[in-house]
Amino acid sequence: MQERKDANSPQDIGDQMAALKVLQGLTVQNAVGAACSFLLHCAIKHPDMTRRVLNEKVIREGFRGMSLLETLTRVCK
């Protein structure tokens, strides 16, 4: 699979939404397990990309401009 340079293209966003719908259709336990398993897979296969995404600032309504990793840590407390 070839990586696209623009992760916000309509096709990429559509792919991301389709994956999210699959996860939403699972039980919470299975969805979290699948998401974590895939994140671990990405960390092993694409460590630089995974690190960059997790450290990217989340700037949207309701977020404070913290990295995704910081945001996940904060909301899980």
Give the topology, please.
Layout: H1 10-24, H2 28-45, H3 47-55, H4 68-75
Quick structural gist:
The chain is mainly α and 77 residues long. The protein is built from four helices and no strands.
Helix content: 55-70%
SSE order: HHHH
Question: Residue-averaged pLDDT, rounded?
Answer: 85
Summing up helix and strand content along with how strands pair, one would put the structural category as mainly alpha
The rough form would be described as: globular
Number of strands: 0
The percent range for strand residues is: under 5%
Q: What would you report as the Rg, rounded to the nearest angstrom?
A: 14 Å
Low-confidence stretches: none
Number of domains: 2
How many helices in DSSP terms? 4
Largest sheet: none
What distance lies between the first and last C-alpha atoms, to the nearest angstrom?
36 Å
Q: How does this model look, in words?
A:
With 77 residues, the chain is mainly α. It has 2 domains: 9-45; 46-77, no CATH class. Helices cover 65% and strands 0% of the residues. Helix 2 crosses helix 3. The chain starts with 9 loop residues before the first helix and ends with a helix.
